[in-house]
## 1
Amino acid sequence: MPTLFGTNRSAKATGQIASSEFAKITLGGVISLGQSVNGSYTRNIQTIFEIGNPNVYWLGGHEQGNLQMQRLVGKRGFFADIRPGACGEIKPVAINVTGGTCATGSGGLTIGDAILEAVSFGMQAGSLEITDGATLRFASLSRS
């Protein structure tokens, strides 16, 4: 039977999508109380044209990415799980997802040659949470 909006909808069984509930973020150490992680991986593309030719040519450039994460500050204090080495290098950096009670998806991302670019912290009136975070730059991204 159509819904109020005139569409027909059916629900799929659970176990189709990986859940953030079973994800693990590693930035030198496993991130505890993680709240969010966002990243991107890009490369410069230069467009090449030729006089007298209607074709377009693409020249792929250098790849790089960035990752931002936020976590709740726990009993170990600010930036407890962010462990940069020499010159701000962070190893290992990875995001792994494993199936949980109902989820069947799994996999991971390995981030190579990461360096700490910035740290952040925040609190807000009316909210009990205190957060800290980090921004990383990295040179490679692969599936693991």
## 2
Amino acid sequence: MDKKDLEELKKWERQKMNYVETYGVDIFNEKKKNASKLSKTLNKLFNLIYKIAKAILIILIFVVIIGTFALLIWYYGTIYDKMHIDPVSTISGMYNVNVEVVSKNIDDNQNGKYILTTKENPNVHFTAIVNWESMKQDYSDRTQKYYYENWKNVDKNKIKTEERYDENGDILVYRQYIEIENKNQIESSIDLINDFLKFAGKMYFPDWELYYLVSGQRIYPIDIERLNKEDFIKKIENILVETNIN
């Protein structure tokens, strides 16, 4: 340190001492103390901000992980639903009934044999065979058979019945018809079928294999809903005339 610097230092020291003697405060030390306090405060603030940011980042990562898992579960659940048919909801939707499971013999993938019934008629038990996206079931056939067997009509035997089961003996295939061979049989045949359908009531469904057999042609009762009885009779008469049957 040269002479000039030494004089400047002594001058600064004299000013400092004069300030302390005059005001009783060492402003220079106070500035250092205040700067130190500010530095500590800022450090605490930065540490707090860092901890908050770190916590937010951890929460965001956690939310992303949970969201990803939820999305994967939903995605694979959707794929599974598309690949696998649910017999209860499917048959309920098809026939507008409340289906319930009586028993089932299925594997871990829910494939196999289901014995089902409905709240509307728990006396009717039917079968559904599920194999992933395919299903065979005999709700309609079993219902038709049940109502026919419980229908009290002395002329019911005029309706011919064909009954068989699939190759595994699980699914019923049930078919019934009245063969009309001349005009005199038309009205009585219509009345007989109508009485059967009236007995079945809301449990009748248009996919019942129940029809009039006229000269080899099948005419289903649903056609009466499109035509009145007189027009329906004429339709059958015309078929008989066309095939030269009187």
